[in-house]
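Shapes recur. One chain:

:::
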Amino acid sequence: MAINKEELISENTVLYVDQVRKSYGKKRVLKNMSFSIEKGKIVGFLGPNGCGKTTLVKLINGLMPVTDGVILVGGKKIGKETKAMVSYLPERTYLNNWMKVKDILDFFEDLFEDFDRQRAEQMFSDMKIGLNEKLKNLSKGTKEKVQLVLVMSRQADLYILDEPIAGVDPAARSYIMKTILTNLPEESSLLIVTHLISDIETICDEVIFVNDGSVVLHEETEALREKYGKSIDAIFREEFRC
């Protein structure tokens, strides 16, 4: 897929990915991946399990070094400065089970200058999650809600949510999506990494299809629906078979 670099980066570009490659041993996981995301956009980063989505997210968050290619957040290379710009929800729970919800709030308040504790406490109240609850007593779905609240209570330029609805029942998914949208700052961008396309396509301004470590397609959602006369989920399944 040919990429015009002038179209990839501008003063409104919050995330710039150019020719990024990554291997684990002899296995190439990312293959010259390139795309960009503008300020204020909600973008679905879509693909099957094992296609390289989470690997790229780890690179963006500085959890692994960028050795081939370029990744910029707010025009800056990945480092301490960019970590303050990105609020990241990982695919797996990373909090300690012995902690109470209020302990986690204390931890995040100390760790991130942009953390809005009042907003977090209000969301926990809305979700009927008590501040004295211990994580070990919460269901998997409720633990994921706790992590989501923490992430969305920061004032970040870019929010990255890796499979935010994969661990919750279908009835709770719409509530979680509403929570995300309600607490997303207007000028901030959101990258939703998922394989559950039908649940998130209605809120996305753009979608990026990824398969076998490469970007297959990057398009505005409305333009795609008009072009194919199908839902984004149907396009993904029927046209790309990935």
Notes: DSSP finds ten helices and ten strands in the chain. Strands lie at 13-24, 27-38, 42-46, 68-73, 76-77, 86-89, 158-162, 189-194, 206-211, 214-220. The chain has a mean pLDDT of 90. Residues 120 and 150 are 6 Å apart (CA to CA).
